[in-house]
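Ligand-bound model needed. magnesium ion.
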Amino acid sequence: MIHIKKPAEIEEMKVAGALSKMALRRVGAAIRPGVLTSELDGIAESVIRMHRAIPTFKGYGGFPASICCSVNDEVVHGIPGARLLEEGDIVSIDTGATIGGWVGDNAWTFYCGTPSREAVELCEVTCDCLKAGIAKAVPGNHVGDIGAAVQELAERHGFGVLRDYVGHGVGHVMHEDPSVPNYGKRGRGPKLQAGMVIAIEPMITLGDYEVEVQGNGWTVNTVDHSLAAHYENTIAITKDGPVILTTDDEGPWCSMQGGV
Ligand code: MG
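Prediction:
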């Protein structure tokens, strides 16, 4: 069932969205070679708790941390821990904050040091896929319009579009209806209407889109070990067009470059 939010509820959701973005930005600023991924987790958790909010991911389905930290061939749901970031890594960070009973969910792939040229192309195209998807998030369109826009742009560059993981509705809980795939056909799927809030989150690979879950039960990596990127914002569909809820004082976008 798709929950339609009232305008006042969407305003409330901006608080969770802003905090989620702030945590993401702080983590990005700390990304540099030699940093432990567990340190990044601590930064996000303290930013979120400092604002008397709850790190949405911690304990969600048993997930053990406040962020997902997925490095290189890891696409999503990486568990932060004893891994040291290395020069040239690309690091996908996903943060979620719950406050006032609402969830904000967003993700960004950062460069650790200087990335390869192919990593830069992958990240820039994946971020453009997110923007292309958001542009389709208007009343009267269908969920398939979002997926088609993301898929067409990614595949034009020869990149893979994950099938096994998709975007989702967001509200009082992190995962609501509808599912928002990054592939699809125009005019298909549930019709979008004002008051729907969805996380649009392209997960794009340099090679094949097949993925597998590691032995820890969480971390998802590409089977061919090609690089992957992941950009996400939480969007409200309104009569005036898409409104990005995961926006802080600096806006809805982060620097691609970690450590700044
Ligand atoms: Mg999400």
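DSSP finds four helices and 15 strands in the chain.
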